[in-house]
């Protein structure tokens, strides 16, 4: 047996990297054992056998290395023809076995599998003869077949599971399918279906799709991160599952959100899949139904809080920076208010962090408002805003609107906030409530007599824009919308809460109760509405417009921090993508069919701002940032294998 040292090969092999081999056989020491590659010099050889230290003596004495498909002896001499133990005793073994992607292993490797699309020469070179039917099918025909299959399912969760199975089987086909059918499949892999998937995640769990870091891993988080096979991570989406969409505390089952978000980072923003890492921080759950569910996959304890929680999160943030460097983007997702604001404030000055619920939602909604001005007239400062909901999303949107108004009018942000009012569960936020308010609500406490409910707040404030971020379904009642329509020719109504069941009102209700005069957008999609002979299309204020392109801009510029000005320019870039044709149909957001080009425009604007602010590290700055963004995007088309 020929041998050579090759630690880089070991790293690639153990991280799942698959490639054809043209070099001689290799042997090298690994922690706890010897890795021996048997090869006959042919390209595409596929057998790698890991032999533990107990076999070192045999190897030193010249014993041959037995390939996996040869006869071997186990259990003290019992012949094992099929590679299985035939003895009755239990044996402790170390499960180290790595296969270069050829033959059957290639068809089981989602990163490189092409199914029936393997060409004749590839089937010969990679030992696929007989493992596939004789027909060769191109990727486009595969997509046609899959869409036909997915459309046969009537239940959205079945479609979700079919998509997740495809992602585990053939990664490039999954992303090609999603990109080519984004408007139809986005509601399946993201809101609203992902909400139901999280609720039932324990029951439908099949394959590990990210890292689960629980309290059991405290003190070992860096070690856990190093268990992930991919080493060059650029984006991490992390949740602790306490506030999943409008569904509340789903604990460990919130993993569906990071998985879904990162699928969109790749499909819509072009971040390569291997650079994306979904993580769930499991500190328990206060959801009694889940704690009693036999299929629940998380810690069966109530949520850790206070110092215990803070220490785990700090260890996590430190480990991420140590393992992946300063330029890895950490996106916080669906943390409860009391943790979300604190984490963003604490780590915003030391890490590249972004909270999509606070910042991504704000930037998306601001873009919609900017484009809506072309329909309702005036500037942002000419309008009055009333929010139902004063949590992460509501206060985040309000603050970004105030910042943009401040920028446009050159007025202090404290002054522009006066045009924005918020209603929470206790009524209108006013100065007389100041002492009892959480810190993130205090900037919005203005002088006004107390108002208990939303409809009275609408009548008192007379807003031109009504925004729902409450997570409470059907709270924009007929009386509320009729009140908005009574003093606005074109009331702007945004029902942003997800999933669909939590939306403050439906598109049909908004158009019908406003007599067809509302300009409406929602967080989850709604079908077109026919009212008095007219067809109304509603826009979707979906964060998927924003975070994939925003993240791409940070990554391609090598940004080390997120700045509010980046959010503002991202909003401007998105608003500019709304055409007059879109506006004529009542749409204040562009169609998702062009989302990759939209993401490139957002990425270019964000990167330009990073360079302007001195926060970019990838130098020199490219001359054409839009073209550079497009060139950086991952493409899911199949590659030819040698």
From TrEMBL:
(S)-malate binds at residues 243, 498, 542. The chloroplastic ME isoform decarboxylates malate shuttled from neighboring mesophyll cells. The CO(2) released is then refixed by ribulose-bisphosphate carboxylase. This pathway eliminates the photorespiratory loss of CO(2) that occurs in most plants. Gene3D superfamilies: Malic enzyme, N-terminal domain (3.40.50.10380), NAD(P)-binding Rossmann-like Domain (3.40.50.720). Belongs to the malic enzymes family. It comes from Escallonia rubra. Divalent metal cations. Prefers magnesium or manganese. Signal peptide: none annotated. Residues 167-348 form the Malic enzyme N-terminal domain. Residues 358-611 form the Malic enzyme NAD-binding domain. This is NADP-dependent malic enzyme, chloroplastic.
């Amino acid at each position: 047996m020929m041998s050579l040292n090759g630690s880089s090969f070991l790293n690639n092999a153990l991280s799942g990297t698959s490639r054809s081999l043209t070099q001689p056989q290799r042997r090298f020491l690994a922690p706890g054992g010897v890795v021996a590659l048997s090869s006959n010099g042919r390209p595409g050889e596929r057998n790698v056998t890991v032999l533990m230290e107990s076999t070192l003596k045999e190897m030193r004495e010249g014993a041959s290395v037995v390939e996996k498909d040869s006869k071997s002896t186990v259990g003290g001499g019992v012949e094992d023809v099929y590679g299985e133990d035939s003895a009755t005793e239990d044996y402790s073994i170390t499960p180290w076995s790595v296969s270069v992607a050829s033959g059957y292993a290639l068809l089981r490797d989602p990163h490189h599998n092409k199914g029936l699309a393997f060409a004749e020469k590839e089937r010969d070179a990679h030992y696929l003869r007989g493992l596939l039917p004789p027909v060769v099918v191109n990727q486009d025909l595969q997509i046609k077949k899959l869409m036909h299959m997915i459309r046969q399912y009537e239940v959205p969760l079945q479609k979700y599971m079919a998509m997740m199975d495809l992602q585990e089987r053939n990664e490039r086909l999954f992303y090609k399918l999603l990109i080519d059918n984004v408007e139809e499949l986005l509601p399946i892999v993201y809101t609203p279906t992902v909400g139901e998937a999280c609720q039932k995640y324990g029951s439908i769990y099949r394959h590990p799709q990210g890292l689960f870091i629980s309290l059991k891993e405290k003190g070992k988080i860096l070690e856990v991160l190093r268990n992930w096979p991919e080493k060059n991570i650029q984006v991490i989406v992390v949740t602790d599952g306490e506030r999943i969409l409008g569904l509340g505390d789903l604990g460990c089952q919130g993993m569906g959100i990071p998985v879904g978000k990162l699928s969109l980072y790749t499909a819509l923003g072009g971040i390569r899949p291997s650079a994306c890492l979904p993580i769930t921080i499991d500190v328990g759950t206060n959801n009694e139904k889940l704690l009693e569910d036999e299929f629940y996959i998380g810690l069966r304890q109530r949520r850790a809080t206070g110092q215990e929680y803070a220490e785990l999160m700090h260890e996590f943030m430190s480990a991420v920076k140590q393992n992946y460097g300063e330029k890895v983007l950490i996106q916080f997702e669906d943390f409860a208010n009391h943790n979300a604001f604190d984490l963003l404030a604490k780590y915003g000055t030391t890490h590249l962090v972004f909270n999509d619920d606070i910042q991504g939602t704000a930037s998306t909604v601001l873009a919609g408002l900017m484009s809506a001005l072309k329909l309702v007239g005036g500037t942002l400062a000419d309008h009055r805003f009333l929010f139902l909901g004063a949590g992460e999303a509501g206060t985040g949107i309000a603050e970004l609107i105030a910042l943009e108004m401040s920028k446009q009018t050159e007025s202090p942000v404290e002054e522009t906030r006066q045009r924005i009012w918020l209603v929470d569960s206790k009524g209108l936020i006013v100065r007389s409530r100041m002492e009892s308010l959480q810190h993130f609500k205090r900037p919005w406490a203005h002088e006004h007599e107390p108002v208990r409910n939303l409809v009275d707040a609408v009548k008192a404030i007379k807003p031109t824009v009504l925004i729902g971020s409450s997570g409470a379904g059907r709270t924009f009642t007929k009386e509320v919308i009729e009140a908005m329509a009574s003093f606005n020719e074109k009331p702007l109504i945004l029902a942003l809460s997800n999933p669909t069941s939590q939306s403050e009102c439906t598109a049909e209700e908004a158009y019908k109760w406003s007599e067809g005069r509302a300009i409406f957008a929602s967080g989850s999609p709604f079908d077109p509405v026919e009212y008095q002979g007219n067809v109304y299309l509603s826009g979707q204020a979906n964060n998927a417009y924003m975070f994939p392109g925003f993240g791409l801009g940070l990554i391609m510029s090598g940004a080390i921090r997120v700045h509010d000005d980046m959010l503002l320019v991202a909003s401007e870039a998105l608003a500019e993508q709304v055409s007059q044709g879109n506006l004529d149909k009542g749409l204040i957001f562009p169609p998702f069919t062009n989302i990759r080009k939209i993401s490139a425009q957002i990425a270019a604007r964000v990167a330009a701002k990073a360079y302007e602010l001195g926060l970019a590290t990838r130098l020199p700055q490219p001359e054409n940032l839009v073209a550079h963004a497009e060139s950086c995007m991952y493409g899911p088309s199949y590659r030819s294998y040698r």
